[in-house]
Structures are given as structure tokens and as C-alpha cells.
Amino acid sequence: LVPARTALVGMGFGRRGAACLLPFAAAQQAGHIWPETRPALPLALCTHEGGCHTSEPTSLTMDAGRRWLHDVRFTPSSPVGNFGDCGGPGHWNLTLCPDPLSCARNCAYDGLRLADYEAQYGVSMESGGVRMNYVSRAGKVGAQMYLLDGRQENRYKVFHLKNREFAFDIDVSTLECGMDAAVYFVEMPADGGAGVGGNSAGAAYGLGYCDATCPSTVHFIDGQANLDSGFGACCIQMDVFAGNKVATAMTAHPCNTAGLKRCSGAQCGDPASRDVYHGDCDRDGCEFNPYRLGDKVFYGLNGTVNTLKPITVVTQFLTQDGSDSGQLSEIRRKYIQGGRVIENAHSMLPAVQGDSITESMCAQQKAAFASTRDASSPDGNYDRFGLMGGLSTLGAALDRGMVLAVALRDDPTGRMQWLDSLLPEGASPSTPGAVRGPCMPQWGDAAWMRTKLQGSHAHLANLRFGAIGSTHRGMPSAPAGAGARAAAGDTNLVSAQRLGKGLGTAAASRGGDAFLRLCAVACASLFTASAFVAYRLLRGSPAARFDDEFADPRLLMVRSDAPEYACE
């Protein structure tokens, strides 16, 4: 969410999925104004013998930080104006919130109706799943929700992922640079913290959130109000998918704690205090981003995994001995499109080997990408993943159980550069690991996107969970290079940088052998580097500015049906 990392859309972010947008809640009373009615998102359980057919009645609940927080005495019959809002970070009602515990007892989060989910937050049931709009009809940006267990009252669905696989269908075809559709697991309390401190509402109201960025914008932690935002909520995080239509990442984030921990000071690993590499969690994590690892034609527009079409994402959590109790040894990714299984990309960097997350791949990645450490924090061990026990620590959390979170967000502070652009800011594109995707850094400008790209959305459906290989049994594997072709006659507008990727892809499709694929990647790299150089020259020249008509460089476009050029 990262992803770690990236919190909810709306108020601001830290880097790398840095959780920070809307304040995530972790405590409170339940209100009585509106009954809660939630969007359903069924979960199918899969076996090798019976396939996937038994659906659990799971549903999504909105994070509490999105809900109305008001005086607990307010009821539908209360005179208007008699009871007020409780406020939140930076604007607490000190009458209702004179101290942390009183605030939790005096304030309540209320329910949301299905109509509220759609009108206020852009979330609606559609085609066996949910659609999440980037900007809702009410003008709110993004959403963050958690999967509830339909068979147990006021509890999240808890997943024990070792020696299992988790699959879902997702459509990110309208999500541009700077946007992130996130599907991830966190070790938040299954009951949402109900019964702790002043929290009597619990999971049903989206309480108990934590992640590996240790967000300090939560309203309540351990049943007490976070009145001065002096505490954070830390826990282990596993990002199974973070992505848009040009870039994706799968990231593991261990912590040195089990379950939710309230942190303070350096424990929270806050970039603002230069503590990223001193915190209780690995904010950066060990990730698998095909583009960052050198394969620039695997995932994206008309890539091997073609994001212009819906994608099935399969994540396998493999153990050393193939048993449920064995040690977690590998996290493997597969994709499915057109009825065929697409194996994950291989790293094309000489210093980083592999096509999955393993201890050796992560150690190599940390050594190779050391120059991309968070610029705010020059001190501390960059390899927090290894320091915190890596897959062994994550595996212990998978044994204890994890909760599924889904989100659609942007990144007002970091512009989602950790996912699809260049980071650290100003680094040379030749720095190993600095280029995460084909986007210009400024393309993630949230203010511009919220005005110009309001129709963007993601669709998530068909959750499946079961034994390794059970969610996609009987499907053939795709041949090498399947989907790696340029769009014939495609009239979509793409940036000059994306054209480079398309040209490289076209070259690969004409031969399909290893030499041409390397040539394709070289083409894409050349166009990427050239675009970054041009961008930096433009920024450095006082005379080179954009008119109001071209206020964002994404408007400087070329057609994707431009002549093809081979790398010959």
C-alpha cells in the first residue's frame, strides 16, 4: 500500500501508497440515524474436486473515517441543531472530546444506505461485484472498504492464506497515471476493536484499520480518540494488487509486531520526521513491479497482460513443504485473460533474478535499489524487509489471519510516483529501480485529475479462495509473448512516452524470440528516458511553459496509430 501504503483518497498521502487520505477510524460508538445496508461482494470457496461454487455472503463496509461522526445522543427525533458533529483531526469538538476516552464514549459513527454508498462514495453493485468511481456524484474522491463475514455478526472475513491462493477479476481500463485500485490484506482486528476502550461499534462500521505506513490520521486507536494525531496504527500488510492501466505492483510489508499496534514517535516511521527506516513496519516492502524490474511491455495497454480488458489476478502463497503449517517461501502471481493463464513476468535486471517474491529475490532487490531509498530519511537500514524477518514474519501473520481491504485512490502529495512514475524525485532514469512505470511525475496531479478525469472507475468481482491451483483449474497456459502486440487501428490517445512502449511491443510481436523482446524493452527504455529528459528540460527553462489550454503535459499527445518503428 506499498501501498502499503497509500491510504484513502481525499486528504493527502505519504509516499508509496502511504496511508493518509481520509482519516481511518479505529474506535467508536454505533449511531442510530440510518440502518446500514452494504454492497454485496460474494466470495467463492474453491477445491480441486468441486471447483468454485460455494459462495459466502460477504459484503463491503466503508471505512469509518468516511462516515458521519456525531454526538451519540443524536436520534432521528432530535431537534435540529441540538446535537453537533464531533469533528476530527485538526477540528475536534472539544465539548464532546475533552479527552481521548470521553470522545470515544460521546461520539458515534452512523450507518450508510446503499444509496449513500453510490451517491456519496461512488460505490455500486454491478456485474457480480462492485464498481468504484473515482469521483462520486457528491464530489467525493475514492473509497476504502473492508470485507465483512456474512456468517458472523460484526466481524471481518479473516483469511488464512498460507498454502492457498486468492483470485479476483478487476477492470482498470479507465484508471490513468496517478490512480490506484488497491486490493490488499492487513492484520487489523477481526472484530474492528469492539470492546476495547470506548469502541462499541466494531467491524460493522469499518473500525480497526491499520497498515504498514502506521497512519496517524486515524480518528481512534484502541478505543480512544487520536486527538492530536500523535499516534499511528501499525500492522503487517500484503498488497496483492496495486495498479492502474499502465503499472502494477505486488508488495509484502512485514512489521515487528503482531496485530494492530499503536505507535508514537520514531516507531511510526514517518517521512516528515525522517524516520522511514526506524519504524516498526517496512513501509517500502519487497515488491514485484514488472516495469521496475525491466519488463516494460508485460503489463499495460496491449501488453502481455492487456489492461484494456478485464484481468483475472491470481496470487499464490506457497510454503516450503507444501503444507498449511509450512514456512511461507514464495508469493507467486498469475494472470488470466482470454481463457488462458499468463505466467508472471521475469525480472530483466541482471542484479535481481526471479519471477516471484522470495527471500533471495527481495535481498537482491534491496541491494540493487539502495539508491532509491526515501530521500527524507538518509539514516537507518534500507533493507527493512530482511531486518524484520521477511517472508517468515509475513507467514506468521498469514497464520494468525488477515482482513481484505479494497480501495480506489489518488495521491495528492506523492502523485503515485511510487507505483507508475519516477522516484526519488529528480533521480536519473538510469538509476536501478527509480523508474516504476511509464508516467511523467506531474501526471499524477490530483487536482487536475479530479477535474478532468472524473469518469474514471474500477470494477472488482468474482472473489475466489482455495487450494493452490483450484481457482483456475483446467485452464491452458498462454504461449510466450501472448498479448504482446501493438493495437491495430487503435484510436486511443496515448502519450509520447506510452508510444515508446507500444513501439517496443510491436517489435516484440513481429518475432517473439528473446532477441526481439530485449529489443522491445530497449525501445521502451529509450523512449522513457527521452521523455524524462525532455520533461526536466521543460521544467528548467523559464520560457518553456504550458498555456492554459495545455495546463497538463498529458495533453501533448500523439496517436497510437502512428507509424511503427522497429529496433533495427
Describe this structure in words.
The chain is built from nine helices and 28 strands. The chain is an alpha+beta fold. Strands 2, 3, 7, 8, 11, 22, 23, 24 and 26 form a nine-stranded mixed β-sheet that branches. Strands 4, 9, 10, 12, 16, 17, 19 and 25 form an eight-stranded antiparallel β-sheet that branches. A hairpin with an 8-residue loop joins strand 22 and strand 23.
Record the SSE blueprint.
Elements: E1 29-30, E2 43-47, E3 51-56, E4 59-62, E5 69-71, H1 100-106, E6 107-109, H2 114-121, E7 123-126, E8 129-133, E9 143-148, E10 158-159, E11 164-171, E12 180-186, E13 220-221, E14 224-225, E15 232-234, E16 237-243, E17 248-253, E18 261-263, E19 286-288, E20 299-300, E21 305-306, E22 311-319, E23 328-337, E24 340-343, H3 359-368, H4 384-387, H5 390-400, E25 402-409, H6 417-420, H7 446-452, E26 457-467, E27 493-495, H8 496-511, H9 514-540, E28 557-559
Parallel strand pairs: 1-6, 2-26, 20-21
Antiparallel strand pairs: 2-3, 4-9, 5-6, 7-8, 8-26, 9-25, 10-25, 11-22, 11-26, 12-16, 12-25, 13-14, 15-18, 16-17, 17-19, 22-23, 23-24, 27-28
Summarize the structure.
With 568 residues, the chain is of the alpha+beta class. The chain has helices at residues 100-106, 114-121, 359-368, 384-387, 390-400, 417-420, 446-452, 496-511, 514-540, and strands at residues 29-30, 43-47, 51-56, 59-62, 69-71, 107-109, 123-126, 129-133, 143-148, 158-159, 164-171, 180-186, 220-221, 224-225, 232-234, 237-243, 248-253, 261-263, 286-288, 299-300, 305-306, 311-319, 328-337, 340-343, 402-409, 457-467, 493-495, 557-559.
